[in-house]
Design a protein that fits this description.
Blueprint lengths: L1 H13 L13 H6 L4 H33 L17 H22 L1 H19 L7 H21 L5 H29 L12 H23 L16 H15 L1 H6 L12 H7 L1 H21 L1
Length: 306
Amino acid sequence: MNSIFSISKLLFKASRPRHWTKNLLVFAAPLFSFQPEFVIWLKSLQTLVCFCLLSSAVYIFNDIIDAKFDRLHPIKKFRPIAAKLLSEQTAYLFSLILIIISLYLAFLVSNPLLLILSIYLTIQIIYCLKLKEEPLFDLMCISSGFLLRAIAGGISSGLIISPWFLLSIGLLALFLALEKRKAEIRNISINKEITRKVLTRYSLPLLLRIESLVATSSFVTYSLWAAGPALQGAKTSWMLLTVPFVLIGIFQYQLLSDPEEANRRSNDKVRRTAENPEEILLRDRGIRITVAGWLLTTIFIGLITN
């Protein structure tokens, strides 16, 4: 009995429940449609469950493949598979079970959702097997996951999402991926160990140039979306009130990825660095205040425009 409980606990840890916060993006469509219908939110909740299960399956599959490199990483070496606390055979089987359950639940919701999840799974498997070793393609694969989450939330709810908003999500996800790679390159200089092959193809100056373009583009596209129906954007131009929060959020995240700021946080036990975006969302006070302000403003706009 204790053995079963221990394995279950390790499987849950390997599923990376902290990363499920990324899947909250499926609620973007109903949130910005300003429609309080229960059915719409129920569909989004079902989509959230599907993505939590499927993304966890992908994380486990990726950890199996990356186990050798994870053992060289100061934090990832404690993951159940890398630490050899969980056998690869058990992990493979659990990952397969999660995939089957997720796709079956998606099928019960709608065929379009099943298609989106299948595309997400295909891209992530190709990423795990090959594309994570290819510069730039690895960043595109990461950002596509966020984009597909937003699209899935709209499709399952029968809502139409503005192309400006989808572009904003894709660019912001690309921005987060760039910040993650920057933090990983910094770790190489500290730990003298290469934890990803693709990092040998990147340099900090290159990532800084790309980051500048992506950060600017993401802010501009979000602003165009917030301008309202005139630009095929948000339901109301009142969403322009949320633009400052997006700008502050980008600046705050760049501060966290700054080398000097990272040095000041070097003893941070929860690793609130750009290498761990899920920890930043859950733990960093500045980011949480910014997100809360953005969310409350959006809800307020929804109340006054309906």
